[in-house]
Amino acid sequence: MIQIKDLLEVLPLLIIAFSAIFILLLEVSIKKSETVIFGFSLIAILAAIATSFNYFNKEMIIFNQFLRISNASLTFSVIILISMLITVIASKSYIEKENVNFGEYYSMLLFALMGMMLMIFANDILIIFIGLELMSVCFYVLAGFLRLRQKSNESALKYFLLGAFMTGFILYGIALIYGITGTTNLTLIFSDAKVLTNYVFIIGTALLIIGFMFKIGVFPFHMWIPDVYDGAPTVVSGMLSTAGKIAAVGTILPIILAVNILNFKIIFSVAAVATMLYGNVIALAQTNIKRLLAYSSIASAGYIFVGVASMNEFALRGIAYYLIAYTFMQLGAFIIVAMLEKKDDGSRDYKNVDLDFYKGLGKRNPVIATFMTFFLFSLAGIPPFAGFWGKYYLFFAAIKSNQIWLAVVAILLSLIGVYYYLKIIVYMWFSESLEPVSEEKFSFSDTGFAATVLAVIGTILFGVDPNLFFSLFKFVTP
Amino acid sequence: MKFDLETVLFFSLAVMAIGSAIMMITRKSPITSALYLILNFFTVSGLYLLLKAQFIAIIQVLVYMGAIMVLFLFVIMLLNLQDEKILKEKFTYRKITAVLLSIFLFCLLSFTIYFGFSGKFTAMSDKAVEIGTAEFLGSELFTNFSFPFELASFLLLAAIVGAVVLAKKKFE
Questions:
Q1: ipTM > 0.90?
Q2: What is the pLDDT of residues A400-415, one digit of tens each?
Q3: What is the count of structural domains for chain B?
Q4: pTM for this model (two decimals)
Q5: Does residue B66 sit at the A interface (CB-CB below 8 Å)?
Q6: B-chain residues within 8 Å CB-CB of A131?
Q7: A214, A308, A350, B144 from A229: Cα distances, Å
Q8: Out of A21, A131, A147, whose CB is closest to B166?
């Protein structure tokens, strides 16, 4: 039974769930409600972040064992909340620019957020599945939100078809796990050591992991990423590539660590290497910046899987650190692309997303170019920025689990990545502008700018002081 | 064999099920065969009722007849499938697969029936019968599983809002 005191134990989730519904009511009851709704969703997410910190170091199993609050799940949920906060801030000016300024947009974002938090807090495969579907349904809608733009429709349809297909994998995996254990409760499943070596259970777990690998975008389940991120509204692409991936990683990682099937280690290592190789090499040939960032996000999924493959106590730290760094840098880069995008003129494709457009950006708009440079340096993993420490802790985890070869390969492959990140930086600062310099009008009142500043602060803060993260999220040094 | 109402119902439903299945695959018009498929689903849900699986019977009516068959009919009407010859030309490859699959299904079914009659599968326990009833499912959903049940309503709400936004929202 649900008890009232249980509700108080998951305040962040409760706040998000109720504000998602409340926004719908606001939308119908107030005229010109978009700004009110924007403010309301900001406050809701901030309140959720603030309340999250009350629950650290208090491990609890609540709601009839359906939810489990632990430090790891709280960490992932706070990272997702931060990513959503930046997304919401950046969205306001973007959806105004694209003429889709509807209150439902924020409602969809919050529903997706609720789904992601459910997945992460879940202690039952049933809840994981409902959360995953809640998240995915909202993602399909958000990807197709620019309804008059063919590219956005294409992206939503592709995402929906492939996503629905992969849901089948996850369900099949759940069915096998349920069939062999007779329960969907994760605590009960993991407590039975005999079950964990049963081959039916291993197949079920493998299917479950495959479904999540699709959501994370790991080779060979990555092919949807470039098309979807390319076609989706740019801010939404940023959100999909950060929050969506974090939710999937945060859900599957505790399961992988608890099941601890050592044979999976080599599979994860190979998948990680293939993903990094694919993402980094194909990104070299891209001329569209949204596609380039999409491939770079595939490469990042590869780095995350280097951590997953190490399957030791360092993996969680490394992945969590990389994910928070990744949130700031990847989302920031996408938001800058969104800000520089041309206003909607009813055309099929997005304007100003070619790499050529970025030539000479440093002369046209030095502030934005500087921020973009920060994000790209961070993505490339260059020291004073957060991305460096993210990779450092991931590769450290791999070395600690005696997979030095994996760490070496990962470092070599991330060197390929440096090339295409630096290419954009060179374009921005050392190439002649193809556009007339004075044409661009850019205002600092753009909410996208505020979001970018937040992302820059995060990128630098966590880059300068890595221990801040571990003390903030109460990580115990192993 | 006892000759009570249950047996009479079983055999009449079984005959109807087989009959409607045969009618379905022999009709020329796709719409007629879709309608026979609905009749087939209906008789099968009657069989579930006889097995005291009320919930599955209701779900069979709701999901298969209500949702899936309406989709089938829409697709048939939208595609306007009239000329069978055009379809037939593409069929050889699929025919082989279909034959192989039906042989596989036949083996599976005859295996099950053979063991069913030779008494290797025992009758269901009382508890297993109880699980299929609407009463049991209802009480589980509103007590032990109330949390996921509420969450499912969130999922449906989000899906409805999303569908309305994508399909109905007016653009200036």
A1: no
A2: 888 889 889 999 988 8
A3: 1
A4: 0.87
A5: no
A6: 151
A7: 14, 24, 12, 40
A8: A147
